[in-house]
Amino acid sequence: MTAKVVQFNQIGSVTFFKNRRSKNIKISVKPDRTVRVSFPFYASSTEVANFVMRNIDWITRQQQKFETKKSDITEGMRLQTKMHNVVFVKGLKNKTTVNYNEIEITISDFNSSESTKYMENVITGIYRYEAKKLLPGRLMELARIHGFQFNKISVRNNKRNWGSCSPGNNISLNLQMMKLPDVLIDYILLHELVHTRIKNHGPGFWQKLDEITGNKARELAKQVRKYSTYTL
Fold first, then answer.
1. SS3 assignment for 88-137
2. N or C: which end of the chain has fewer CB within 10 A?
């Protein structure tokens, strides 16, 4: 699947994905208001751009919905991460105070888009720190237990997937994994480790993944799909 970014005045940048499996042109608007268009190989860029222009009003409405959506976080709420206790309090200005594993996030207005973005950035920072501390060691442990080998590991804030394995067996992991239960984190790590040997999602891949997850590969994959890679 190949991609390129096209700029539209009304809606900003739109990522075009040419997908061999696509039969129709499809538009999706993500919670961060980014726009993606998937289309068949035989469709021209001009045809896809015209399709986007015909749907500008719909795209704008979807972006506005996400823009006006309030955060689910409220005053007094507590968030238990893998390594920190996080509490949200109301104050005069947005700020974050860290005391060892205790983090206090002060918010001036829990309903404003500015505060929502601030909270998202802080939580992302917490997840990034924890992911870099915890994921490499766990990946190496699972690789040792099950006899896999990989090259490099990187941690990113990816909106498209939970992890990936390159042809050179470099594994990239999404820092948003830190909000998942441990059993699902292990599933994603094992999923990518299996890809070091099998570069597709064919029957052999799922057979191997079943073998190392107690025949629960499909069940665990279904549970992962209940979560979003987007913060908050």
1. EEECCCCEEEEECCEEEEEECCCCCHHHHHHHHHHHHHHHHHHHHHHHHH
2. N
